[in-house]
Design brief:
This protein is mainly α. It has helices at residues 17-20, 58-69, 87-98.
Length: 104
């Protein structure tokens, strides 16, 4: 693919996912009970990362920012869904989450 930001650059739509990732929403409900939600989205966050130093670490920065903002810890959450294509990236995010990251 052609480079996105400069003629002789290295960032393309294929390797700049930190710039092109999307978002999602989900409604959790019991199939036997119409219109009765089992969960709610209480907060959300948008994180931009430096593609040279923090590429693909957005989930760990976003999770930490939400936890800090809501005065929660990793132990307060049962399940995180990290939607990423490669196991190595998920492992990198889990490693980043295991360290102390403070996002103001």
């Amino acid at each position: 693919l052609k480079t996105s930001f400069s003629k002789n650059g290295t960032h393309t739509p294929a390797n700049s996912t930190g710039l092109t990732d999307g978002a999602t929403a989900c409604l959790l409900a019991n199939e036997n009970t119409e219109h009765q939600a089992l969960g709610y989205i209480l907060d959300s966050v948008f994180i931009g990362t430096d593609p040279y130093e923090e590429l693909l670490l957005g989930p760990s920065y976003a999770i930490n920012k939400l936890l800090n903002r809501n005065k929660l810890s990793l132990d307060d959450i049962d399940v995180f869904e990290i939607h990423e294509a490669f196991a190595g990236q998920v492992l990198a995010n889990l490693n980043a989450l295991s360290t102390t990251l403070v996002i103001e």
